[in-house]
Specification:
2 domains, 20 strands, alpha/beta, 18% strand, five-stranded parallel sheet, eight-stranded mixed sheet, binds 3-acetylpyridine adenine dinucleotide, globular
Length: 557
Amino acid sequence: MAQVSGETERTSEVDYLIIGAGVCGLYQLHQLLEIGADVRVVDANAGLGGTWYKNRYPGCRFDSESYTYQYSFSQELLDEWDWKEKFAAQPETLSYLEYVADKFDLRPHITFNARVVRAEWSEDDWRWTLTFEGGRTTRAKFVLGAMGLLSVPTYPRIAGRGAFRGLETHTFDWPEGYDVTGKRVAVIGTGSSGVQVITDIADGVESMYVLQRDANWCAPLGNAPISTEEMRELREKYDEIFAWCRETPAGFIHRPDRTLSTDVTREERLRHWEELYNGQGAGLYMGNYRDCIMEPEPNRELSEFVAEKIRERVSAPGVADLLIPKDHGFGMKRVAGESGFYEVFNKSNVELVDLMDHPIHEVTETGIRIDLGSGEFRDLELDVIVYATGFDAVTGPLDRIEIIGVDDVRLKDQWKDGPETCLGIQVSSFPNLFVLVGPQSGSASANFPRGIEDVVNWMTQTALYIEKHEIGRFEGRRDAEIEWVAHVREMNSKLLMSQTRSWFNGHNINLDRDDNPRVMVYLGGAPRYRRRLAEEIENDYPSFLLSHSSVSAAPST
Ligand code: N01
């Protein structure tokens, strides 16, 4: 079959078209090539890496232990790659993905600068037609969405945005290599991205205003270099590490303790929390007594422990108080891993601005005007405005493609009250579209490489099944979709996380603050999700409607 080959061909055809050349898309490409499938990846960016290609803001890194944030499929790759830091920064992760692409010769199968703007299903011949920015089209039997969860940045709706004469950038769109040394900077937002960029640039900037709406909980990351000796020891334990991560709910090295906080004395709890606070990664958040993220009272006590840490680390009591979240407890939103974030506020060139008290009035040509109330304003004179304001998470990457399914139904319309999926992988009325990374999938809330391995491995086995049984049409059943959404709601409701305004519940800023929460992620745990996916294969896909290719009215060759 002809392949998409850049500008020379206006239409081409492929069996499996993967959208996105990030962590998920690259692995899926490799696995489909391994089974001899006709597959191509398209990506809107000029290079591979997805999240790690785009997020080039200072301080960007992950909070998964590096040795768990890698592919496990190739022993050779595991033997060859050395991680330099316990929590690798963006450049190291991007180099890793580039190394993988080169080692497995993936690049020839990827078309860059190819943004899909429309995907339309044809019931006549069971093909998708995808249109790219610029008008080029391609046809595919199966479309596999690997666009990431956090790939559509949200800029806040603030009057005057765009009028500023300095640099206005979202963390996601940070210009490569842009240096803020000596500049007057404002950072809006104190989620994970904000916390990282604020900490990283604080020393070098002339001045920095941190504009905060709600405070977010943070805990020390405990980052450090990995020595040659440590790397050797880790490598020897890789099998054990991956096996362990497979059994933890979110694919991290941390696992909720079966012990309840109420099973131990207060002294023991505090000692344990102290160890976790001074440990590495997300231990305090994900490896704590399990009732701390399920029950209000243990959560309140843990939150107070962390609040006290903030008070100890921030000199001005008023500033410390503002940095302590009031609208949610510790771990009820994704906790940001920090490396000196609180100490930033003890510096004389840094000021915390409380937007709850004094909101942004507008962006001006020279900075940001803050509303002090009673007709009074304060002008912040700036060189750079950084929007660390998050993402149109999970559904945003799908929403920005015009996806048209059976009977001309648009995915956006079908999901207007929130997404509904069959096992987080398909949507009724959108046959042959597989969402590898999307709403209600187990991959969406996991340590990403671990989460996507489950989905990609399932997809690869499914592709083999499709080939073997000559399946031409594959669609999630509506009844299975209803069942899955109910199951996800039930599982999610067990965690306090389901009660907060965060992107996990669809409260990104494209929703108004009072809108109904949406079921975006699956919090039932990776092992349960993996088992559920495996059941489908074992029982010949009871949650899906499968049709033999010969049934199609006019299958193309
Ligand atoms: O985005 P966020 P993020 N005016 O949505 C504020 C992953 N990640 O990019 O809470 C003023 O968490 C908003 O305030 P509020 C990770 O999964 C991981 O930081 O809505 N402020 C909040 O403070 C994470 O969860 C890593 O009141 C506005 C911030 O902007 C996800 O990415 C590193 C505003 C947005 O926080 C997203 O994190 C980085 C407005 N109009 C990211 N609108 C690591 O692995 C929003 N805000 C370490």
